Amino acid sequence: MPPKLLDDHLRFRFVPADPLVTGVVLQCDRVVAGPREFRRDGEGWVLDLPRPPLCRLEYRFAVGRGDEVEVVLDPTNPVTVRTAFGERSVAELPGYLPPWWLAAPAVPSRLEPLTLSGETAHEVPVTVWSPDDLPDDEPAPLLLVHDGPEYDQLASLTTYSAALVGAGQLPPHRVALAHPVIRDSWYSGSPQYLRTIAAAGLDALGARYAVRGPVVVVGASLGGLTALLLGLLAAPRVGGVYAQSGSFFQVRRDVSESGFRYFGRISRLVQAVLDTRHADHPLTVGMSCGTLEENLANNRDMATALRRAGHDVVLREVPDLHNYTAWRDALDPGLTDVLRTVWGRPG
Question: Within 10 Å of residue 179's Cβ, how many Cβ atoms?
């Protein structure tokens, strides 16, 4: 059966189809406190996990048979989710609700491929989403999204846009879904990548489509870092940023990340932003971060520093972790508020 909430803990149960199982281990985010190894219970295996302060928990089972280990979904739980690292079972805790806009009527839309060229050795592929009734030469706001295809597939970003336009809560707009060809290199403060998007990239998008008003840039994790750096570089052409679980690495906080190839470059750029005391072109900045995420302190530091420099900043801490469903669930009102502030309300 799916995990049961019993008083102050979640009870997981696994009943193997064969008698050869020698152990079962829960796989979930390491920041979730509690044991991982199941105990035998009759014909099955049981684990009691202290209730985490989350609204949902993604997990799998590692099932041992002697020296062999097989990682499987929970066979009794029909609730699963696609992630950037494969499918996961999901324990949804009482009170969790998916976003309203997933089931809302959506405006018909179309997709068009485009490539952006500049200082990067590789071109930057972009897929542009537009409402069907929005001609290319009609001025409309533009949303630029890093990790665009993943954001769309795993966080339903264009579904969000189509639903909120359909509901009259956002003006008709276009969404440029940027593909992360060399993600770690590009999304770690690469000056070539940032200049490519800030200059030739926005020029190319503006030549192909009529863009009205300041652009808003979105990203998560390393993409959240990149969205903020791009916003600071390209302001006032970029007027808003929505950074989710941003990888704002600091030397004093992130020893565990120090082995990452681009840690030095990221930490230097982050420190420069933290040290800034004045913004010539203040941005509207929305941020979200999970309450148990290891980088929550960095996001709080960044929000404080941006406010001190004069940016309009709202950081929302959400009861989830570092995953696309958490980022999806925080789009409204987090991104919605940024877009309304930068673009204005419909009409």
Answer: 19
If you average pLDDT over every residue of the chain, what do you get? 96
Q: How many helices (H) and strands (E) does the chain have?
A: 10, 17
Q: Which residues contact 42 (CB under 8 A, 6 or more apart)?
A: none
| DSSP code, position 318 | E
Of the CATH numbers 3.40.50.1820, 3.40.50.150, 2.115.10.20, 3.40.50.300, which one belongs to the domain with range 100-343? Answer: 3.40.50.1820
Q: What are the pLDDT digits (tens) for 67-98?
A: 999 999 999 999 999 999 999 999 999 999 99
Q: Is the pLDDT of residue 1 over 80?
A: no
Place of tokens 């509207």: 284
pLDDT bracket for residue 181 (50, 70, 90):
very high
By DSSP bridging, strand 284-290 and strand 4-6 are: unpaired
Give me the CATH topology for the region 4-92. Immunoglobulin-like (2.60.40)
Instruction: Identify the H or E element spanning 211.
Output: none
Per the listing, tokens 């509901």 go with 167
